[in-house]
Amino acid sequence: MKKCLFHLIIIGLFLAMASVKRGDFFQVISSHPHDLKELTPFIETTYKNGRLWVVSVKKSAPKEIFKYLKPLTGGEKSYLHQPLRHKNLLELENSEIKDILQNVDKFAIKKDVEKLSSYRTRAAGTQDNRDALQLLQARFKEMGFEVKEVCHRSDACSFIADKKGSQFSDKILMVMGHIDSVGEDFAGADDNASGTAVILEMARLLSSYSNKKTIRFFITNGEEQGLLGATYYARILEKENALKALSLVINMDMVGYNSNGVVELETDAAYESLAQWFAGLAAKYTKLTSKITLGAWGSDHVPFLRRGVPTILTIENWDTKTPCYHQKCDRPETLNYDYAAEITKLNLSAVLERDQVNFLTEP
Length: 363
Description:
This protein is α/β, with parallel strands linked by helices and 363 residues long. The chain folds into 2 domains: 2-72, no CATH class; 80-361, 3-Layer(aba) Sandwich (Aminopeptidase), CATH 3.40.630.10. It has helices at residues 2-18, 33-39, 89-92, 95-101, 106-117, 127-142, 189-206, 228-239, 272-285, 302-305, 337-355, and strands at residues 25-28, 43-49, 52-57, 69-71, 77-81, 146-153, 156-163, 168-178, 213-220, 246-252, 262-267, 289-294, 311-316. The strands form 2 sheets. A 9-stranded mixed sheet has the order 5-12-11-13-10-8-9-7-6. The protein is globular and about 60 Å long.
């Protein structure tokens, strides 16, 4: 009798869910405190895990709150990924890649986070933002990269730094992160000096690597004002019919705080296999545990995903993100540089593995 009752309950729940239209539920696409203050009185949570927060909306909700919501399109989910642990896992590692990863320097990452946080503000459009951008351009030029500015307005520029490939230069592996902050004085260490510093460390290690495909670093600007720099550049590539050259795009945003070793891998449902591949790399080459989240929002990977480019965001576990998010206390001393170094290894291994496979057989 109990067993039958249990089955009836399960069937009832299934029928109840089957009658719910996707449009009745929404994904929250902001974590800004002032946005959430406006939003939360009018929503009821149905599911929350990492960066995936699904809600229903009360009838009393004003139209204005829908700017913080995205209708579900199907496939949204978030889960800890447990790759099969082969007993011969070490044999699956690429020895050349492993040797390069051993040279990741957490102290170099820390030094760059401290330097970027020494500017009073890195808000897009400020002189400090422009000074920080010039510093980074000089660093890339010193490492032998070709640098080109991409300005979405006269006082706010992003830039790309290229290292041409020796065999498949028309195939581009792009790694990006935003330099701008929300503007709090001497803050923005995690968001996003951490991602920018990891990019510099990756560039240092790749500057002496003989890459077959073109490696591109994209330092974006205006992310905090609405993904402005990334959207502008994605539109340029779209108009030039050049998006197809991007065989992989990695976005790094807030990669410096967590102590639980969980990295969130965010993309859209169409690229779940890409996220699973990243999770496999994390198991092979790092100490990280991967959480896969499908339903992208809120950072510079979104403009590229919308245009059909295989793109992934690596970000600290959103359930335990820095308590100093968008606050004055987001300082270098609050970060975990061992964790940032592990994310460096993850993204570096992705670039190296993709560079070493024939582009016709890419995963």
